[in-house]
Amino acid sequence: MQVKVYSTPTCPYCRMTKEYLSAKGITYENIDVSSDPVMAEEMVNISGQMGVPVVVIGETVIVGFDKQRIDSLIK
C-alpha cells in the first residue's frame, strides 16, 4: 500500500501525522509542498484544498490529521 503525506515543515498537524504513521510502522513518502510548487498543485488537484496535511493512502485522500480514517485504511 502506497502512502503519501503532502506537508510543510512548519505545520504541527503534519508533524503529528508523520509521527503517527511512523509509530504504526507505516512507510510513507513525505512531499514538502512549501518547496515544490508542482507538488503543491498536485495536492490541490487531489484534495481540492490548499490546507495540509493531505494524506493519500492507496486511492483515498484524507485532509488533516484523522487517526480514525488512517487506522481504518491501514488495517
Blueprint (SSEs and pairs):
Elements: E1 3-7, H1 12-23, E2 29-32, H2 37-47, E3 54-57, E4 60-63, H3 67-74
Parallel strand pairs: 1-2
Antiparallel strand pairs: 1-3, 3-4
- The end-to-end distance, rounded to whole angstroms, is 11 Å
Percentage of β-strand residues: 15-25%
Give the CATH superfamily: Glutaredoxin
CATH fold name, please? Glutaredoxin
Which structural category do the helix and sheet elements fall into? Answer: alpha+beta
Overall pLDDT metric? 96
Low-confidence stretches: none
Number of domains: 1
- Provide the helix percentage: 40-55%
Please give the CATH architecture.
3-Layer(aba) Sandwich
The gyration radius over C-alpha positions equals 11 Å
| Order of helix and strand elements from N to C terminus | EHEHEEH
> What is the topology, as strand order, of the major beta sheet?
2-1-3-4
Number-wise, the strands total 4
Specify the overall morphology: globular
What's the level 1 CATH class? Alpha Beta
Q: Sheet with the most strands? A: 4 strands, mixed
